[in-house]
Amino acid sequence: MKMLNVKNLLKATAFAFGLMAAQSPAFAADTAAANAANTKPTILLVHGAFAASDSWDGVAPILQDEGYRVISVANPLRSVSGDAAYTRSLIDSIPGEVVLVGHSYGGPVISNAATGAANVKSLVYVASFAPEKGETIAELAAKFPGGTLGEALAAPVPLGNGVNDLYIDPAKFHAQFAADVPADKARLMAIAQRPVTDFALNEPSGDTAWKDLPSYHIYGTADKNIPPAAMEFMAERANSQETVVIDGASHVVMVSHPKAVADLILKAANTN
């Protein structure tokens, strides 16, 4: 009898595990019926360099409370083309419309990922780059004065293939990246920061979806990673539907002003 019970238990466990595996990753947990019934677009949040998925923790609940399905993407930060291909695979797996939101380096990623994707409704650039085809992030960052990221970087970490990982020096992280965030929060963000490769920052962008899709832009006047003048230039070039500029906001405007960012995303989600 004991053996029978153990066998039954193993079968039940294997069956349950199979169901869980079939529903993974987490963003696919909704049933097909629920997806079909939900006419609201899914909102894909793509973080940038020196950040992580939890940088959207203040924004995501606001969107969820409005009935939107939200996916916070773990951006690899290896190359614009590779990260865009990864994000595109997620886009293609989602039934219905998608709103793409990119922070900083995430801007080029969503610009490339959305190109030719029939279900992408709109783009939201949060303290972000919006490159033209052939432009690099490094080029755009140097186009206008005011950026001090280079001075705040720690020593590069060689990866052994001619490419280096880049981090912000933790001692400089608060002032450089998140000056309007409480010090204790910024300290944790510095510890959890995800590195970006120098290759990614110097890889030319492919085709950019903002030429064909409505875009929305939000950034702060105290951003030290991307000069505000550069973001103003990119928003105007993309014929931004709405540009929100927050006085005194740092590069992580989604952390310090989550409601303002969420409100703009909601407008993008309601674009006809």
UniProtKB/TrEMBL annotation:
Keyword Mitochondrion found: no
SUPFAM superfamilies: alpha/beta-Hydrolases
A single GO molecular function term of this UniProt record: hydrolase activity
Keyword Cell cycle listed: no
Pfam family, one: Abhydrolase_6
InterPro entries with a match to the protein in the record: AB_hydrolase_1 (IPR000073), AB_hydrolase_fold (IPR029058), Sec-Metab_Biosynth_Hydrolase (IPR052897)
Residues in AB hydrolase-1 domain copies: 43-263
Transmembrane segments: none
Tree of life domain: Bacteria
Signal peptide as annotated in the record: 1-28
Keywords attached to this entry: Hydrolase, Signal
Protein known as: Alpha/beta hydrolase
Organism: Thalassospira permensis NBRC 106175
